[in-house]
Amino acid sequence: MDVDAAWLPAEAFRAVGRRRSLVPAGGLVDTVRRELVDACERFGGRVVREDAELVFELTEGLGEEGFALTRRDGITTVTASDERGLLYGLFHVVRLGEEAFAGDRPREEHRPAYARRMLDHWDNVAVHPVMGQVERGYSGGSLFWADGRARGDWERVRAYGRLLAACGINAVTVNNVNVHETEARLLTDRIGDVAAIADVLRPYGIRTHLSVTFAAPVVLGGPPTADPLDGAVRDWWARATDAVYGAIADFGGYVVKADSEGRPGPFAYGRSHADGANMLAAALEPYGGTVHWRAFVYDHHQDWRDRGTDRARAAYDHFTPLDGRFAKNAVLQVKHGPMDFQVREPVSPLIGAMPRTRLAVELQVTQEYTGQQRHACWLGPMWSEVLGFRPDGEVSTGRLAHELVAVSNVGDDPFWTGHPLAQANLYTFGRLAWNPAADPRAILDEWIALTHPGADDRLTAGLHTVLDGSWSTYEKYTAPLGVGFMVQPGHHYGPGVDGYEYSPWGTYHFADRDGVGVDRSTGTGTGYAGQYATPWSGLYDSPATCPDDLLLFFHHVPYTHVLPSGKTVIQHIYDTHFEGVAEVEEARRVWTGLAGLVEPARHARVAERYEEQLRGAREWRDQINSYFLRKSGVPDERGRTIY
Ligand code: BDP
Fold first, then answer.
1. In the predicted structure, residue 618 carries a pLDDT above the cut 70
2. Three-state DSSP state, 49
3. What sequence ranges are listed for the domain Glycosyl hydrolase family 67 C-terminal (predicted)?
């Protein structure tokens, strides 16, 4: 398979490649030039000195990465104030296709909402005995690593950088946040491998970051402690960081998962997470690097019998007292929900509660809890909701955070993402990171047009039919009303009704014969609802005002509790599970009808995935419905068979 064929098949460049283009030379602009020369060779245009129809030029005033587009007197002009802006301008023209060359266009300016738009790869350098090569990876092996070292498939890495640039991503972390021993060595002995990757990604405006272990000094033969206030430890990090910048002058910085799910961290030394982050920030500061410090800190050994312990509270409880204490180049990276990337969670109350700290919101493009790229589940609408959340309830346009980060869903699979339709998630993430206010459906239109150049109305409509509502469909046939986590332990695929119910991971649904849900109210529950500002704290605190789709996240209610729809909770559970399966059956039917309009191998791969999705959806429906039927003893009022 042609590695360029994702959303940048040659055909997507047709309109550009037929024009006479003028482009400056040097540095990253050479990437633009190369793209134009390639496209012109295919489609008949030329890169010229004068008389151009498509002009790229550098000017002042558009800010980092911004660009402007105009068309007058038959000339389409892209201007930018830096080279990356020209690159993003090129991809914008490619997205527009012929439209960029039709009639006059008033000047439009484009600037990214988030300066850093980053993808974290949970790639292990060597195959991990439990997690494999890519932790939570559903797209084959790693693009970057194999057998304990850089894989060396540079053409593929280059194509990947190009794909990412085309949707606006400008930073990549190349290894897993769980830094095992082989990965730890990337920081020192194997920094050359990281530098080689950085060299290939750089021409596409992408800076390379590295996950490091907090215990690096101890693990890599430095001082016998990792205490962040110990002078020898600080010196060790400063020296290690000097060497990293010796190898990669534009290195982005470190990503750290500390005191989280068994990873080492500052708590072992009685230090705070600000102490830990600031030590690394100090080492990176002379070079303009950044430390991304993850806020996913919770006790994964809690006791399910202790109903007062609430994992959802943990990040807020740990971090809000530290607001204002993090260095300027430390970014607190917060998962969008308080638990862990479930199909439905409230937005983390930490977001908006730390005004004096730089925050990055972390999304999960890899579909760990949303069908593992065997189920079609387009997450654009979910992310759009998350990014539109206003902690104070105002419909202001203020940004939720300073940066946007996501866990990558890409591997060495010929379709990049295992499920070819999962590419839409990666593309949508990049575009929302550029403009979080964009309509996700319009982004999906872009992806469709780029990925299937010349797509007719039938194909476009068909793709919308199977993707637009796919998140809602997935939500319907899996765990109900925001309760989450009714998954198989460990790998997290498929239903596991009580999978985590009696485990120490802190993810419970508390279903018994009378009701279901987690009481997180301030009166009788864990008090989590009180971590929000008004109006959310008030709305979430009462089952009467809590949004339906989060009801069981915030409240333990009887099965007979009546939702605003007029249905009881138990009937809602039955109905949505039947509906979810019916929706998958319909999506599969629509997809079958698109044969002939989609490249055959791609069509076949998606068709195969729909068989598995349907099997999985039925399994979910049957297990969830029969579980709640047996617990509650309340029959389905429509008399359907529940196994
Ligand atoms: C969970 C994953 C686990 C990750 C962890 C994290 O199950 O593999 O290591 O999040 O974000 O979702 O650190």
1. yes
2. coil
3. 417-640
Mutate to test the pocket of ligand 1, among 368, 408, 500, 507 (most ligand atoms within 8 A of CB): 368
User: Which pair of structure tokens corresponds to residue 175?
Assistant: 């290894």
Catalytic residue chosen out of the listed positions 340, 362, 413, 475: 340
Q: Do the bridges between strand 116-120 and strand 171-173 make them parallel or antiparallel, or are there none, so unpaired?
A: parallel
Find the radius of gyration of the CA atoms of the chain. Answer: 25
Residue that is last in its domain, among 76, 110, 144 = 110
* Ligand 1 atom closest to the CA of 340, numbered from 1: 12
Structural domain for 54, as ranges: 10-110
pLDDT tens profile 547-577 = 999 999 999 999 999 999 999 999 999 999 9
Atom 2 of ligand 1 has which residue's CA nearest to it?
A: 136
Kindly give the pairing relationship between strand 75-80 and strand 67-72. Answer: antiparallel
Q: Is the dihedral of CA 398, 399, 401, 403 positive or negative?
A: negative
Does residue 405 line the site of ligand 1, with CB under 6 A? no
Q: Which of 477, 512, 500 is nearest to 617 (CA)?
A: 477
**Burial of residue 49, with CB atoms counted within 10 A of its CB: 0-12 exposed, 13-18 middle, 19 or more buried:** exposed
Q: Which two tokens stand for residue 279?
A: 């030590």
Decide: 538 and 469 in contact? Cβ < 8 Å: no
Let me know if residue 252 belongs to a domain: yes
Position 27 scores a pLDDT of 83
Q: Is the CB of 207 under 6 A from ligand 1?
A: no
Residues 137/142/146/148 CA torsion (nearest 10 deg): -70
Amino acid at 371: G
Torsion angle in degrees (nearest 10) through CA of 363, 366, 368, 372: 150
371 and 513, same domain (yes or no): no
Q: Which CATH number is 53's domain given?
A: 3.30.379.10
Do 342 and 505 contact (CB within 8 A), yes or no? no
295 domain-assigned = yes
Q: Give me the catalytic one of 83, 135, 368, 583.
A: 368
- Please tell me whether residues 106 and 160 are part of one structural domain: no
pLDDT digit string, tens, across residues 165-192 = 999 999 999 999 999 988 999 999 999 9
Asked if the model's pLDDT at residue 2 lies above 60, the reply is no
State the Cα–Cα distance between residues 208 and 250, nearest whole angstrom: 8
Question: Do 340 and 401 fall within a single domain?
Answer: yes
Does residue 117 carry a pLDDT above 90?
yes
Question: Which amino acid appears at position 7 of this protein?
Answer: W
pLDDT of residue 1: 47
Over pLDDT 70: what percentage of the chain?
A: 98
What CATH code is carried by the domain that includes residue 391? Answer: 3.20.20.80
Atom of ligand 1 nearest to the CA of 257: 13
Q: How far is the CA of 78 from the centre of ligand 1 (A)?
A: 41
For residues 121 and 143, give the distance between their C-alpha atoms in angstroms, rounded to a whole number: 10
Query: Which residue puts its alpha carbon closest to atom 1 of ligand 1?
Result: 340
